[in-house]
Amino acid sequence: MLSFDQPVAFHIMAKPIGPVCNLDCTYCYYLEKDKIYNQTMNFRMPDDVLEFYTRQYIESQDIPELSFTWQGGEPTLLGLDFFKKAIALQDKYKGGKKISNSFQTNGTLLNDEWCRFFKENNFLVGISIDGPKEIHDRYRVDKQGRPTFDRVLHGIELLKKHNVDFNTLTVVPKENARHPLDVYNFLKRIGSGFIQFIPIVERERKNAKEEDILLVGPEIKDAEMTEWSVNPEEYGEFLITVFDEWVRKDVGRVFVQIFDVTLVNWVGQPGGLCVFSETCGNALVLEHNGDLYCCDHFVYPHYFLGNIRFRTLKEMALSAQQYTFGQSKLLDLPGFCMDCEYRFACHGECPKHRFTKTPGGEEGLNYLCKGYKKFFSYVHPYMQYMGDELIAKRPPANVMKFARQYKRYTGN
Fold first, then answer.
1. Residue 306, CB half-sphere, CA atoms under 13 Å: how many?
2. Burial code of 223-235, b = ≥16 C-beta within 10 A, e = fewer?
3. pLDDT tens digits, 272-299
4. CA 35 and chain centroid, separation
5. How many other CB atoms sit within 10 Å of the CB of residue 158?
6. Angle at which helices 232-249 and 180-189 cross, to 10°
7. Is the Cβ–Cβ distance between 387 and 267 less than 8 Å?
8. Residue 73, preceding peptide bond in cis (omega within 30° of 0)
9. Are strands 215-216 and 223-225 parallel, antiparallel or unpaired?
10. 3-state DSSP call for residue 370?
């Protein structure tokens, strides 16, 4: 196990029901993870694993506050009693630490009881919704192929009714990328004050056998893009179009994760999103049976760290294997990226997307590179202005007036 002078702190995304879900979203990369396990097994975190996890996660970290993140699959399928037990265990082991919880759901199974529980226990709820009905229902259907938009919207209304804090996670596959303002303005209308956009980039293994994982990582060369994956330059245009609307009307009122993270990197501050950080390795994923993997995007056998029944979370999180995984994000960057003027803002983005070649033929270029370069180049003057305002201890929202003037004089 490695030893560090700084306080031990890492984040874990727990998947207590594994890949089990009541939806069958076309682009989902997690549904087929059942192939790593026995597909007929009970994908439900046992009580002893829940207690091992809770105690170890709290006791292994040298920080006064930490957050439990629950995801799936669809975690509401576990039922409320599981999460009541989780809260009781947190109270049992928290000592003097402050504990918070976040919960990612597709929203279709929410009811008044769930929402009362979230409110009483101060959960932050993330809702997966892709935009207006015709956009959302293109890919987000249930196991019977039925649309889910109306059920998700009902879940959001219940969260509002009970004053539960929520944000939205919106994926951007090829189709959504062509409707940026429809998506953004819809999210504002439903009351989302914090918006996350996740580009869909997936490759399918060629000549896959029935037992193979179909959607593969960058180490698999014999693969091709899925038809729903976003085009890099279209994704850049999507971000630019949304940014144009946001920077003129919504700064300080609506928070868009990628814009906030870009500003953090622009002023040289740490604490941004892992995909835009220089290194990674501090965001691990725990499966329902206690298996720990390097990252949510790398739940493949090669990235297995161990099981909490046999190794402690701290031991695995600080292991040489995990350290090497995190450092490779920087060490494996092509020279083309090292020389890029926007390296500070991107850092090569997520290693899972690094499977293309640079113009000079180097391996390991991020598939979305052209889109990000287009976006960072466009937002440069606005980010510079907001950064200067922060340094001067003035509100970054002043950029809205600047943006209108800049557009008038430059046309950009």
1. 15
2. beebebbbbbebb
3. 789 999 999 999 999 999 999 999 999 9
4. 23
5. 19
6. 40
7. yes
8. yes
9. unpaired
10. helix
| pTM, full prediction | 0.94
Report the half-sphere exposure of 105 (CA within 13 A, side-chain side). Answer: 25
pLDDT (tens digit per residue) in 393-407: 999 999 999 998 887
Residue among 130, 244, 250, 296 flagged as catalytic:
296
For 262, the enclosing helix (H) or strand (E) is: helix 257-266
Q: Tell me which H or E stretch contains 154.
A: helix 149-161
The number of beta carbons lying within 10 Å of the beta carbon of residue 328 is 14
CA distance 363 to 379: 28
Summarised one tens digit per residue, pLDDT across range 124-162 is: 999 999 999 999 999 999 999 999 999 999 999 999 999
CA-CA-CA-CA torsion sign (246, 251, 256, 259): positive
Distance from the Cα of residue 124 to its chain's centroid: 15
Contact 296, 11 (CB under 8 A): no
- Determine contact, residues 100/122, Cβ cutoff 8 Å: yes
Handedness of CA 223, 224, 225, 227 (dihedral sign): negative
Q: Return d(Cα 98, Cα 36) in angstroms, integer.
A: 35
- Determine whether 296 is an active site residue: yes
